[in-house]
Amino acid sequence: MTTSIFPTFNPVLLDIANAQEKFPVHNIYCIGRNYKAHAEELGFSVDKASMKPFYFCKSTSFLNTSGAIIDYPAQTNNFHHEIELVIAIGKTGKNIAISDAESFIYGYAVGLDMTRRDLQAELRDKGLPWDNAKNFQNAAIVSSIYPKTQTGIIDKGEIKLSVNNEIRQKSDLSQMIWNIPEIIADLSTYHQLEAGDLIFTGTPEGVSAVNKGDYLLGEIENLGKIELTIKN
Ligand code: MN
Predict the structure, then answer these.
(1) Which domains are present in the chain?
(2) Is the predicted pLDDT of residue 150 greater than 80, yes or no?
(3) What does the DSSP 8-state code read for residue 153?
(4) Could you give the percent of the chain with pLDDT greater than 70?
(5) Which of 113, 149, 158, 200 is most buried per CB count within 10 Å?
(6) Ligand 1 being an ion, which residues bring their Cβ within 5 A of it?
(7) CA of 3 to the centre of ligand 1 (A)
(8) How far is the CA of 31 from the centre of ligand 1 (A)?
């Protein structure tokens, strides 16, 4: 029998709304700049006709769940929130057709793509990888998983986030540049998607800094909520 030198790591298990079973998380993918007004607030324009979406990843060990109380992270003075709709993949597939994409969706979640914005700007300007800006302890916060309903593909609905009860981000999922089937189809040309994968679909405008002691509450219409507290 093979033994390991320290205990093996268990998958992160997310709650599923109104169910006893859990959703084991596999890979975490994120799309960048998927809302025009957010790309513009960071100083970029997006032309869907001539550009392709781009992606980065977060480590599952850096995932935390809604309701978490986290430390303010190291190496930043500009720690930002990005509220996003998250797709939860339910079966294996690659080179998925846009018309087939819905069948690969198990459900959805509300997510926070937490970002060390100062590091992101510095790394980006130097042409260096984004990892230290996007992939660190508690950088991915995810709500319960909501199984997809008959509507299947979500293509609209208000998405908003408040900090200490003051609205910072407010938009609509219909403002996504690449919609859910397009994201699944495109991402699956780079990676074989697996049951348990999560895909963050991008954030609308209004990203801003949070500080020690702040309470974040996000909500997506007809879906659910997410909460996060930054420790004092
Ligand atoms: Mn994001």
Answers:
(1) 13-230 (3.90.850.10)
(2) no
(3) S
(4) 100
(5) 200
(6) 82, 113, 203
(7) 39
(8) 7
